[in-house]
Task: structure prediction
Amino acid sequence: MSPAWCALGQGVKANVIFFDNHEASKTPWTRDVWYYDYRTNIHHTLKQKPLRFEHLSEFIECYNPKNRHKRKATWNAEKNPEGRWRKYTYDELTARDKTSLDIFWLKDKSLTDLDNLPEPDTLAEDIIENLESGLASFRAVLKGLRKVG
Result:
């Protein structure tokens, strides 16, 4: 199983999706897709709170690389609505907008709990990182356009 990677700038929130490589088939090989939401209510910055390996320990435990067929969801609508590890069946996914696997189920606390916003310097750093990432993307597009033109 290998991850589907794409290059994104710092501060860009993204999913990493793992697929098994199989020969073509008329029926889909995919039966379930597992999600670990490491976007909602998680804040890392380049300087004050950079992402470190230990931040991913829960994901590694949930992913269960030694026996992926024994994975267990941590999300449950009634018992654990804050669980970050969740499985969707093929039928659940195809019943949605088929062009997007970008799925959210956790509530963003920053939108509902204004008393617990990150510190102003953390917010400012996040904004700067997002602006720099966007600017880098525009520069890459412009560079590509200049090569074509």
Notes: Confidence is low (pLDDT under 50) at residues 1-8. The beta strands are 2-4, 17-19, 32-36, 85-89. The CA atoms of residues 20 and 33 lie 11 Å apart. The helical segments are 57-63, 90-94, 109-112, 120-148.
